[in-house]
Amino acid sequence: MNFSLYRWDLERLLQAISSQDVHNVIQVLEQARDNHRVFICGNGGSAALASHFACDLAKSAGFAAMSLSDPMATLTAVANDGGYCDIFSAQLAQQHCTPGDVLVAISVSGSSPNVVQALLCASGWGLRLVGLLGSDGGQAARLCRARVIVPSPRYGLVEDVHSAICHMITEHFKETAR
To answer: How far apart are CA 163 and CA 58, in angstroms?
Structure first.
């Protein structure tokens, strides 16, 4: 793929994002801002974005935010002892989540078993569920209360748009800081 085609596809996908869907995510996060925690998870490039987004929310927007994709020792211990499918849900269990906390799942496919497992567990504990998803949203789309779906299966493009969405959300909260 050449540069011009990638750029055209990226611009098209940015235009396809629903402002209302982004606003719905902002509303869920707004409800958690003062008294609840935000947990973020993803695999691969989405794991890197989970770390970046948690940092931005905590540093720039005053959230108690944590990436579940960061603690390498915990990830490998849980994967070794219980299986890779549980790497996020086990961490949520250790955090003693409370109803009103938020789980943001970032996934290009929306069907990564460990992300879906985290959403199912988080739902059972009363967390609000948010998805930044690609393709058709996969299984995660049906679980999330608020979601933004980037309608493409191409991971690079979806990750680029997810990054832009995270920055949009952070900018919103920086502008509305108290």
So the answer is: 16
The amino acid present at 136, given as its one-letter code, is D
Cα–Cα–Cα angle for 17, 28, 110, nearest 5°? 55
Per-chain mean pLDDT for the chain? 96
Going from the C-alpha of 30 to that of each of 49, 78, 119, 129, 148, the distances in angstroms are 20, 31, 20, 13, 16
Domain of residue 35, CATH code: 3.40.50.10490
pLDDT in tens, 121-176: 999 999 999 999 999 999 999 999 999 999 999 999 999 999 999 999 999 999 98
Q: For the chain, how many structural domains are there in total? A: 1
Cross-strand pairs, 129: 103
How many Å apart are CA 110 and CA 105, to the nearest integer? 8
Structure tokens at 64: 């108690």
Q: Output the pLDDT for position 176.
A: 86
Yes or no: say if 54 and 123 are a contact pair by the CB < 8 Å rule: no
> For residue 135, what are the domain limits?
3-175
Nearest CA among 165, 146, 171 for reference residue 57: 171
pTM: 0.96
Cα–Cα distance, 91 to 157 (Å, whole number): 29
